Amino acid sequence: MNNRRIKIAVQKSGRLTENSLDLLARCGLRYSRSRERLFCYGENMPVDIMLVRDDDIPHLVRDGICELGIVGRNVIDEKATAADLDKVIALDYGHCRLCLAAPEDHAYDTPAALNGQRIATSYPVITRNWLTANDISAEIVEFSGAVEIAPRLGKADLICDLVSSGGTLAANHLRELSTILNSEAWLVAAPATQLDDFGREWVERLSQRVRGVQQVNGSKYIMLHAPRVKLAEITDLLPGSETPTVMPLDGRDDKVAVHAVCRETVFWETLESLKQAGASSMLVLPLEKMLA
Ligand code: ATP
Ligand code: ZN
Fold first, then answer.
1. Cα distance between residue 69 and residue 57, in whole Å
2. d(C-alpha 34, C-alpha 130), whole Å
3. 96-182: which CATH architecture?
4. pLDDT digits (tens, 9 = 90+) for 141-167
5. In ligand 1, which atom is closest to the CA atom of 73?
6. Distance in Å, CA 219 to ligand 1 centroid
7. The CATH number of the domain covering residues in 220-286
8. pTM above 0.85, yes or no
9. At 239, is the secondary structure helix, strand, or coil?
10. Which CATH class is domain 6-93+185-215?
11. Atom 29 in ligand 1: which residue has the minimum CA distance?
12. Which residues form the pocket of ligand 1, taking CB atoms under 6 Å from any ligand atom?
């Protein structure tokens, strides 16, 4: 089938949108955004983007409407089971945590203090699982938004909500008690057994490109000249690099050129130590693409 295409579900408008579209662009996808902006047609690959509410992404992928999706771990755990979705790659953005919080005067010492209490949350599934795992019997009050005002309204004793900086909690005189889930955005796929050959091939190809983009982030390419006698000492100083490439320099027997990919930040201090060890003509370059 040559008109077969792959769909990736991405949050339409919210905290994950910009990073997710940016990541796909860095994977080489060129797309045009349609007027109603629900669908981006991939111009240079058989890959389209569906822009939807983040809450719908786990089911769109589970039901095979989209082969891939980008969504927060909090939404994955709330809406899907491990059998529904394959969590392919943690993307290192959209960091937040799902926390229990209580009014500042709430007497909380151990999780057992939650027995018999009412907890307001928009994450009933995750909260229920955590309560069960900790052997706590508490009542869950479902809220779809503005969970932080539930205690003031007398609707709950505590809340379980997403936090990134903690500013909203402080503004509502709430104290963070414990983290029940650490979350970040994930690339998710339908389980491989549910995909046809074309789907599997593209899920694999795009996953590999996402890994390539992640490897490039923070990596640098370093080139320098080293006295042969100092080669071992100098390569030991290169941060996070595997076997460097060593090349002869025309007309020089005492020096070689060393090229290496450094997977850690190359600081000025690193260059200064290299210079002290005898390195010269040092260049540090950004990397654009990498494929292992
Ligand atoms: P939608 O209209 O798509 O349903 P939303 O209001 O549910 O949007 P956003 O507030 O845009 O979603 O958050 C999207 C995701 O970003 C969250 O599910 C979570 O994974 C992540 N995130 C990161 N920091 C925060 C935060 N401080 N509060 C809420 N979500 C956060
Ligand atoms: Zn949402």
1. 6
2. 42
3. 3-Layer(aba) Sandwich (3.40)
4. 999 988 999 999 999 999 999 998 878
5. 20
6. 29
7. 3.30.70.120
8. yes
9. coil
10. alpha beta
11. 162
12. 11, 14-16, 53-55, 72, 74-75, 94, 96, 162, 164, 183
